[in-house]
Task: inverse folding
């Protein structure tokens, strides 16, 4: 009896200690949003979100638009990638948008959105985006949510430190990630130190039209330019770029570019560069780059190949560029709202340096240099330093700011957001992200006037956070409440493409300007039919131009005969509607391109080459009305050389046979 | 011939001046809502024009065979400016020549014009709502689409409202002033006799 009791006692102790032991094991990332999180992100049906979130699509080459706090996806704006859904890159009008010096490029990698600013604050006019692979910058209108302009960047390879903008959107900069030989020269890769150069393009933005032009390019030493931010307030007139691979490695960079204790933050005095430019110190060089502009009145893009760029060589022109040592391959290089502090995030570093603009100025004035790099002064680290954030986390990447003097830094390796005070450099709070956060975004976070309230994490890995979809999983963002002392996770939301970076802007700055439709009387498209009376078909050699109109619920003309095999048929479809949210679509059987979507008042063109005879149906693809299914027509294709007369009609019953027509 | 009190003359002058507003603000409005048009569509009737979402309303109405609304459909727009002008003229004469009988004439005219306008509008609405294209895509047997004269009416998926706009209300105020003045003068004459 007694042994039995002892045995039970032993068993109980065993079970008890097992429970205690297990509860001591580290917890998995099972933490869920707490308390009233659901009500904080709930936007009731028919109500609007407080912020627009412009999220880059990374490798999908597009820009997506989400609502915050709900995380709902509203729209995907095609920028650098074709979009068969709308016809972007397929319609005759939009094909020139994707033209480059290499010809038509249907894809790119869009990493960073940048919202235009006035006096350092968001103004809701445009959002810019960069093409990483074939270097370009796009400007998207926040009235139409369409890409209006794309400019290519010569002498660049990997347009990564882009598109960051100056306080009043004077310039959009585009720094090359990969240094390359200038002028596409054929040289040995091993001649990197000798032949490879960096290029920082300053793209001027017309304050009224937004039109882009490359004002000048800084020719800089050959290494990698990663990210950048403009100065603001007192530091307006300066730009800061993070640089890595100052080792100038050209192979196995993960080892060879990680050797030095410190790389650089490059401080650029662009006002000085402007002075040199005005003095005619720039050198004009022959080159080739495409400049593509979409005209809202002709509803068409034009592509121009520019052949000259002005170079300012920072090795020859002193006082434009200074280097500030920054630990271990800096990635993020972020300027606080006051413009005084510059945060360098060495992605392999144990501390995070915060530099002071006034100290940098003093160091330059006192020539407080520790050395030079190819003749460019390198400031003393301590002379430029405001202080270091100690033990912040592992793998710091990017920093944004709130309106209360706090900074929020993402840590890729330790997968967390760390909140710290910009002045005292004291770490205040940390929250995990799921998983491996890259960029983060606070509404207005990179501007002089942050709106705070939320920080959004854009993660690189989702693993077990959503229902699995095979080896390729959804990408995601996470929304955190930062209104209190502690950050609180509110919401996970999946995203399209790779949500690389994003900016959030109060809806009130964008919503009232949103265009509802294009005015038909302002349509200057050369092939527009601004009324059914103008609808017609014209033949010019083997080109057949169909001036077609679309209005609920018919296409005019909807019977077309006299087209022959070998012809090129251009369907120029004008949407005659003058009402909100009544697009029409157009598709024809066997077209080897895509459909087109035509907004009210707009004209778009689909090219079609019939390869065989027959009667080919076409129809409206956008469910427009109760009689949408009736919105269709036929194209008769006759053999090449036949003499079927060209004719077209709508609503004409020629020879009523039993059961046909009325 | 009885003279008017200074107050009555002032009231008639005021009534007359109010009617000048008819040239500058819409007189009548038709508002429509549907599930697809939560923001509503509006049509404003002026003394010689129609404004608002007329094209959109016409485009929608073609499904049920209603005609496109055009300014030329309304011969009234040609002469309404003169009728109101004449009314204003009579009003000014009334307050000027100072005869009680003129108040009677002015009041009868203004009330008659109001009633006449409503009758005319009803007749147009009847024709517009009943005289449908027989080949229209949507023909609902027995259904007609006459807009309400005043008030709200459900027409298929649309809720239609019809009622006075600013000008209409001002016109009514002008009429009420005339009727009130007449009543006041009547009261005075009975008190004296």
Result:
């Amino acid at each position: 009896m007694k042994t039995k009791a002892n045995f039970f006692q032993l068993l109980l102790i065993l079970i008890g200690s097992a429970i205690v032991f297990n509860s001591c094991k580290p917890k998995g990332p099972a933490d869920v949003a707490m308390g009233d999180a659901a009500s904080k992100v709930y936007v009731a049906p028919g109500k609007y979100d407080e912020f627009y979130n412009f999220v880059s699509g990374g490798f999908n080459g597009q820009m997506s638009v989400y609502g915050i706090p709900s995380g709902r996806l509203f729209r995907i704006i095609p920028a650098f990638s074709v979009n068969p859904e709308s016809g972007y890159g397929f319609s005759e009008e939009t094909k020139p948008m994707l033209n480059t010096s290499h010809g038509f490029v249907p894809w790119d990698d869009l990493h960073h959105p940048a919202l235009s600013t006035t006096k350092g604050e968001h103004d809701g006019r445009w959002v810019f985006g960069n093409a990483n692979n074939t270097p370009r910058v796009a400007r998207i209108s926040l009235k139409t949510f369409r890409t209006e302009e794309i400019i290519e960047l010569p002498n660049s390879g990997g347009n990564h430190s882009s598109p960051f903008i100056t306080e009043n959107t004077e310039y959009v900069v585009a720094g090359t990630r990969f240094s390359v030989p200038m002028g596409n020269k054929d040289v040995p890769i091993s001649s990197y130190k000798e032949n490879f150069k960096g290029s920082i393009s300053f793209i001027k933005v017309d304050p009224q039209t937004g039109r882009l032009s490359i004002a000048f390019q800084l020719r800089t030493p050959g290494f990698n330019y990663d990210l950048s931010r403009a100065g603001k307030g007192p530091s307006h007139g300066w730009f800061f770029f993070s640089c890595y691979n100052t080792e100038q490695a050209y192979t196995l960079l993960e080892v060879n570019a990680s050797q030095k204790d410190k790389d650089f933050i490059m401080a650029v005095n662009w006002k000085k560069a402007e002075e040199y430019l005005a003095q005619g110190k720039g050198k004009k060089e022959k080159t080739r780059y495409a400049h593509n502009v979409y005209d809202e009145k002709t509803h068409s893009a034009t592509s121009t190949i520019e052949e000259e760029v002005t170079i300012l060589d920072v090795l020859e022109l002193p006082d434009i560029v200074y280097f500030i040592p920054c630990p271990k391959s800096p990635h993020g290089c972020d300027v606080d709202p006051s413009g005084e502090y510059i945060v360098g995030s060495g992605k392999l570093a144990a501390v995070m340096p915060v530099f002071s603009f006034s100290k940098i100025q003093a160091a330059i004035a006192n020539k407080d240099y520790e050395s030079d790099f190819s003749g460019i002064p390198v400031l003393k680290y301590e002379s430029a330093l405001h202080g270091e954030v100690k033990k912040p986390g592992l793998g710091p990447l990017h920093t944004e700011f709130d309106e209360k003097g706090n900074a929020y830094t993402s840590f890729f390796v330790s997968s967390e957001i760390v909140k710290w005070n910009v002045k005292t450099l004291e770490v205040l709070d940390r929250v995990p992200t799921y998983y491996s956060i890259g960029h983060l975004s606070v509404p207005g976070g990179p501007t002089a006037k942050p709106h705070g309230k939320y920080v959004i994490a854009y993660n690189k890995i989702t693993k077990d956070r959503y229902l699995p979809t095979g080896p390729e999983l959804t990408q995601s963002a996470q929304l955190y409440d930062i209104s209190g002392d502690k950050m609180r996770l509110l919401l996970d939301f999946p995203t399209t493409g790779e949500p690389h970076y994003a900016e959030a802007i109060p809806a009130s700055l964008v919503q009232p300007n949103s265009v509802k439709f294009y005015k038909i009387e302002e349509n200057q498209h050369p092939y527009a039919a601004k009324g059914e009376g103008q609808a017609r078909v014209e033949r010019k050699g083997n080109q057949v131009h169909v001036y077609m109109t679309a209005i609920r619920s018919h296409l005019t003309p909807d019977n077309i005969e006299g087209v022959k095999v070998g012809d090129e048929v251009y369907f120029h479809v004008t949407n005659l509607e003058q009402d909100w949210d009544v697009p029409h679509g157009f598709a024809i059987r066997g077209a080897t391109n895509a459909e087109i979507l035509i907004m009210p008042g707009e004209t778009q063109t689909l090219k079609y080459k019939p390869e065989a005879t027959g009667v080919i149906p076409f129809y409206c693809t956008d469910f427009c009305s109760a009689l949408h299914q009736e919105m269709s027509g036929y194209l008769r294709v006759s053999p090449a050389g036949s003499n079927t007369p060209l004719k077209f009609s709508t609503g004409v019953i020629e020879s009523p046979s039993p059961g046909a027509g009325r | 011939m009885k003279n008017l009190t200074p107050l009555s003359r002032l009231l008639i002058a005021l009534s007359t001046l109010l009617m000048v507003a008819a040239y500058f603000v819409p007189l009548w409005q038709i508002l429509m809502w549907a599930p697809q048009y939560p923001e509503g569509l509006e049509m404003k009737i002026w003394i010689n024009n129609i404004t608002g979402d007329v094209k959109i309303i016409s485009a929608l109405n073609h499904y049920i065979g209603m005609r496109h609304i055009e300014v030329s459909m309304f011969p009234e727009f040609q002469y309404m400016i003169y009728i109101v002008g004449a009314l204003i003229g009579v009003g000014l004469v009334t307050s000027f020549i100072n005869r009680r009988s003129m108040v009677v004439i002015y009041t009868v005219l203004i009330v008659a014009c109001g009633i006449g306008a409503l009758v005319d509008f009803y007749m147009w609405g009847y024709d517009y709502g009943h005289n449908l294209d027989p080949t229209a895509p949507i023909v609902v047997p027995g259904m007609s689409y006459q807009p309400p004269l005043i008030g709200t009416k459900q027409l298929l998926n649309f809720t239609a409202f019809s009622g006075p706009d600013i000008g209409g209300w001002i016109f009514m105020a002008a009429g009420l002033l005339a009727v009130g003045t007449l009543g006041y003068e009547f009261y005075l004459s009975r008190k004296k006799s």
In short: The helical segments of chain A are 2-24, 37-41, 192-195, 253-256, 270-278, 357-365, 381-384. Chain A has a mean pLDDT of 94. Chain A touches chain B through ten residues (CB under 8 Å).
